[in-house]
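Below is a filled-in request sheet from our internal design queue. Each sheet records the structural input a requester submitted and the sequence that came back. We keep these sheets so that new team members can see what a complete request looks like end to end.

REQUESTER: design group, bay 2
PRIORITY: normal
MODE: inverse folding
CHAIN LENGTH: 186
BACKBONE (tokenized):
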């Protein structure tokens, strides 16, 4: 079995007019990888919607920012990580949780094989942050999907340990490890 992986990044400006670049890129890539037209449409739509959410919610319409996408291709899977540099990075508290909750709920509903929550930028998390992570786990379990947390900062790790929840969640060291876990669970 071939275990090689290809990883590359793509950056686009945070303007809605550049979303068509993503549609063209992912359409061509997925076709060349042998995805069906239905699978191609679903993946492309998910990436398009996630980036549109970044523009609308993360950047609040500011078109002078950038969106970075990291694509990981393995022989058995495709993973896309979307990174933004939106407003108030680094907190998951009562002020930021409502927006995060909305996004998390939408992503759980959209997910087909599992959900990976990357917490690399979270430097502060309070009890409302814990609550929304638990809600995400509950929603994922309701759909029998794997739900993984990854790239925990020391601050997030400490909060989970203080709440005695570090064994409640499945925690992966990296996005690649989390993807591997989801592949094994499939």
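RETURNED SEQUENCE:
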């Amino acid at each position: 079995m071939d275990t090689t992986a290809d990883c590359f990044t793509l950056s686009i400006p945070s303007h809605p007019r550049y979303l068509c670049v993503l549609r063209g890129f992912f359409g061509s890539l997925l076709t060349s990888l042998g995805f069906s037209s239905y699978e191609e449409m679903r993946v492309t739509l998910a990436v398009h919607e996630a980036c549109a959410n970044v523009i609308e919610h993360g950047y609040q319409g500011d078109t002078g920012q950038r969106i970075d996408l990291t694509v990981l291709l393995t022989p058995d899977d495709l993973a896309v990580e979307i990174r933004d540099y939106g407003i108030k990075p680094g907190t998951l508290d009562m002020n930021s949780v409502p927006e995060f909750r909305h996004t998390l709920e939408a992503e759980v509903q959209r997910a087909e094989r599992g959900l990976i929550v990357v917490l690399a930028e979270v430097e502060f998390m309070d009890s409302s942050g814990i609550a929304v992570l638990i809600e995400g786990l509950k929603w994922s379990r309701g759909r029998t999907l794997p739900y993984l947390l990854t790239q925990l900062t020391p601050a997030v790790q400490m909060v989970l340990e203080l709440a005695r929840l570090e064994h409640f969640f499945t925690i992966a060291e990296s996005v690649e490890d989390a993807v591997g876990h989801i592949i094994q669970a499939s």
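SHEET NOTES:
- Helices lie at 19-32, 37-58, 97-110, 127-142, 154-162, 175-185.
- The chain has a mean pLDDT of 89.
FILED BY: M.R.
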